[in-house]
C-alpha cells in the first residue's frame, strides 16, 4: 500500500525559505528528516533538488520539472514532469514529498500524512511557503515541542497530521 507523506519545516507564517535556502538551522530537525526519509523515495521540485550540493544518500530522488530536456548524471535520480508521474513511481511504498512550495501545493491532495516541523518564528522575507493546513481535511495526531537552546535559535514543534477521511484521497 502506498503512503505519501509531506515533510517540511515551516515558520508560524508558513514560510519555508528564501532564494532556495532555509531561513533557520535546526540540527535536531535535520536528524529527524534523515531518520524518516532514509531508505525511501523522495519527491521534489527541480529547484529543491538543485539546492543540495549532491543527492541525499540512501534515498531515490524523484525530481519534477517542466523542462523536458532536464537531465542529471547522478544515479538514484529519476526525472518526471508531473506530480502524477512521480506518484505513479511510488505505487506500493512509503514516499516523502520534500518540497518546494509549489510541489507541496500540487501534492497535498494525494498525501496521506504531513510531518511538519513548526518553527516558532515568522520570516517576512521568505519567498516560498507551505500550504495552509485545512483542519477540516487534516487531524493533528502527534505533537512534540522543543524549546530553543544553544544549538537551536528557535523553538519548534514536530506536528504529525493524518488525513481525516482517507477515502477522499485521490
UniProtKB/TrEMBL annotation:
Pfam family, one: DHFR_1
Documented EC number(s): 1.5.1.3
Domain DHFR: 3-163
Keyword NADP among record annotations: yes
Broadest EC class assigned to this enzyme: oxidoreductase
Function: Key enzyme in folate metabolism. Catalyzes an essential reaction for de novo glycine and purine synthesis, and for DNA precursor synthesis.
UniProt similarity note: Belongs to the dihydrofolate reductase family.
Protein name: Dihydrofolate reductase
Amino acid at each position: 500500500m502506498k503512503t505519501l507523506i509531506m515533510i517540511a519545516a515551516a515558520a508560524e507564517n508558513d514560510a519555508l525559505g528564501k532564494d532556495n535556502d532555509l531561513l533557520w538551522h535546526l540540527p535536531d530537525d535535520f536528524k529527524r528528516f534523515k531518520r524518516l526519509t532514509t531508505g525511501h523515495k523522495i519527491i521534489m521540485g527541480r529547484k529543491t533538488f538543485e539546492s543540495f550540493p549532491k543527492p541525499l544518500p540512501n534515498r531515490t530522488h524523484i525530481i519534477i520539472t517542466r523542462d523536458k530536456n532536464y537531465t542529471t548524471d547522478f544515479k538514484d535520480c529519476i526525472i518526471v514532469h508531473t506530480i502524477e508521474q512521480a506518484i505513479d513511481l511510488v505505487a506500493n511504498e512509503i514516499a516523502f514529498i520534500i518540497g518546494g512550495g509549489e510541489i507541496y501545493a500540487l501534492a497535498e491532495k494525494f498525501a496521506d500524512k504531513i510531518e511538519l516541523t513548526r518553527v516558532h518564528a515568522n520570516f517576512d522575507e521568505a519567498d516560498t511557503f507551505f500550504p495552509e493546513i485545512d483542519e477540516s481535511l487534516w487531524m493533528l495526531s502527534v505533537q512534540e515541542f522543543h524549546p530553543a537552546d544553544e544549538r537551536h535559535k528557535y523553538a519548534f514543534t514536530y506536528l504529525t497530521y493524518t488525513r481525516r477521511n482517507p477515502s477522499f484521497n485521490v
